[in-house]
């Protein structure tokens, strides 16, 4: 397959509006990289720039070390799967998958062999003689992916390919794409606004906001050590709780206490010294890290209970007026309109400064641990302090 690098890549339009604001990124051979972010963050534009469907205003795009800014899209060795299937309704599945090869002058024998192999990989062998109208949404999307596979590209590009599918089918197709990645040992770049897709599929996540990269890392690196408030709030479901606090005390070694709006105090443990007492900060706590404690600092009345089967979400209004979500076991008998208390371990607290940047937590990993790519032996990572 291929490596891909972006060096200071920018995209501007005539009105002076800049959508991509200087992105540097390296994508390794056989990596599954997900661009994730809210609508309008620039993720699809960046993908289209890689594909050659959008011009690069400044910077360099390199594939296997070769600059390809001015190379025609058809000659970059990439294949793109779009949000819409864009299948020819009058053609069979086999004809749809092999049409690009036919236009390229590939012989019928070779074309048929590549279509049959793609159909085997995608479990579409029994559908080759059908037309798109006789297929489900998931099967149509697999045909669109097959159309990319037959071209044997260096890099696969996916632009929100699951957004038109229902929830159950999205989950099934996610698994199929991961299986496809393993079987093809391919380099893949995938765009989505769904952080669950990003967490479950990626080797590496690139979080975008306003045309800039907020953070790059493995799914668990971003979950456990978000670089700022935006990443902390975007990665994780349900989203992280944020509470205004002030520093009450600290020992200079990262151990300290912060005060909530109602005066209750929370012990925290950081990997760096806390700011001076009285400094306002934002405390971040993931709902699943909270637990019931009759003496806990988070006191409030539940006003909504969401029972989701395997887990329960209790929405609290704290005595200081802040909102807090606590995730508990699905069989938890907790009821709304009851005063409850909860707590969190000091090393599960996140703190963010006035600039939105995170204070470093214990066990912070500067670089995500090595993760074996398809076809490679597992790498044993050593713990870092």
From TrEMBL:
UniProt keyword terms in alphabetical order: ATP-binding, Cell inner membrane, Cell membrane, Membrane, Nucleotide-binding, Transport
Matching PROSITE patterns: ABC_TRANSPORTER_1, ABC_TRANSPORTER_2
Region listing for Disordered, in residue ranges: 364-385
Pfam families with a match to the protein in the record: ABC_tran (PF00005), OB_MalK (PF17912)
GO-annotated molecular function: ATP binding
Domain ABC transporter: 4-235
Annotated family: Belongs to the ABC transporter superfamily.
Protein known as: Sn-glycerol-3-phosphate ABC transporter ATP-binding protein UgpC
Organism in which the protein naturally occurs: Rhizosaccharibacter radicis
């Amino acid at each position: 397959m291929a490596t891909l690098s972006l060096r200071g890549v920018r995209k501007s339009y005539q009105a002076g509006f800049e959508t991509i604001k200087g992105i540097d990124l390296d994508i390794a051979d056989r990596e599954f990289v997900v661009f994730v972010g809210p609508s309008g963050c620039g993720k699809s534009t960046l993908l289209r720039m890689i594909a050659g469907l959008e011009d690069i205003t400044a910077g360099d795009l390199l594939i296997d070390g070769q600059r390809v800014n001015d190379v025609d899209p058809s000659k970059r060795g990439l294949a793109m799967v779009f949000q819409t299937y864009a299948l020819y309704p009058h053609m069979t599945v086999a004809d749809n998958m092999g049409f690009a090869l036919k236009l390229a002058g590939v012989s019928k024998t070779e074309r048929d062999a590549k279509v049959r192999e793609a159909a085997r990989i995608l479990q579409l062998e029994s559908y080759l003689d059908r037309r798109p109208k006789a297929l489900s949404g998931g099967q149509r999307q697999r045909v669109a992916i097959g159309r990319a596979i037959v071209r044997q590209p260096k890099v696969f590009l996916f632009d929100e390919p699951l957004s038109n599918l229902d929830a159950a089918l999205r989950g099934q197709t996610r698994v199929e794409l991961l299986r496809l990645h393993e079987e093809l040992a391919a380099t893949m770049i995938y765009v989505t606004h769904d952080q669950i897709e990003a967490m479950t599929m990626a080797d590496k996540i690139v979080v975008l906001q306003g045309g800039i990269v907020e953070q790059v890392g493995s799914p668990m690196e971003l979950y456990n050590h978000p670089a700022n408030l935006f990443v902390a709030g975007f990665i994780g479901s349900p989203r992280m709780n944020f509470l205004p606090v002030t520093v009450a005390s600290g020992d200079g070694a990262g151990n300290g206490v912060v005060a909530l709006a109602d005066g209750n105090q929370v012990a925290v443990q950081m990997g760096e010294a806390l700011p001076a007492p009285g400094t306002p900060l934002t405390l971040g706590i993931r709902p699943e890290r909270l637990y019931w404690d009759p003496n806990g600092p988070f006191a409030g009345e539940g006003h909504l209970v969401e029972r989701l089967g395997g887990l329960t979400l209790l929405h609290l209004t704290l005595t200081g007026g802040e909102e807090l979500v606590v995730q508990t076991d699905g069989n938890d008998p907790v009821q709304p309109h009851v005063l409850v208390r909860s707590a969190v371990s000091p090393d599960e607290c996140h703190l963010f400064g006035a600039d939105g940047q995170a204070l470093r937590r214990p066990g912070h990993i500067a670089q995500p641990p090595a993760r074996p790519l398809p076809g490679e032996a597992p790498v044993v990572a050593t713990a870092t302090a």
